[in-house]
Write a structure and sequence with these properties.
The strands form two sheets. The chain has a six-stranded mixed sheet with strand order 2-10-9-4-5-6, with no helix packed on it. With 116 residues, it is mostly beta strands. 0% of the residues lie in helices and 47% in strands. The termini are far apart.
Length: 116
């Protein structure tokens, strides 16, 4: 049974940093391209960052480039998202998943709120 669980969110001031972690189980983690997504109120879910199976290749949405870093630990089936210089527009619920959602499910997500 595939499980995805995100942790590490909360409230942060503009300019601050936050690290999210995604705990996964139930699939061969090292075989899947992983990604972080986010969804803010009234908007569609959007892709934030992607990481290759081995972790050597990454790609970011324009808004995330230079501020966010995605990484993974295949030995522990974890995916991380390091976020720096956070802005109010980064306020959203963040989700991790394999790219393209092959499992047809989402975790509960984790709320990130950026506000003074």
């Amino acid at each position: 049974q595939v499980q995805l669980a995100e942790f590490g969110g909360g409230l942060v001031q503009p300019g601050g940093s936050m690290r999210l972690v995604c705990v996964t189980s139930g699939f061969e983690f090292e075989r899947y391209i992983m990604a972080w997504y986010r969804q803010s109120s009234g908007k569609d879910r959007e892709e934030v960052a992607v990481i290759s199976t081995g972790g050597r290749a990454t790609d970011y949405a324009t808004f995330a480039k230079g501020r966010f870093t995605i990484s993974r630990d295949n030995s522990k089936s974890l995916v991380y998202l390091e976020m720096n210089d956070l802005k109010p527009d980064d306020t959203a619920k963040y989700y991790c998943n394999s790219r393209g959602n092959p499992f047809r499910l989402w975790g509960q997500g984790i709320q990130v709120s950026v506000s003074a």
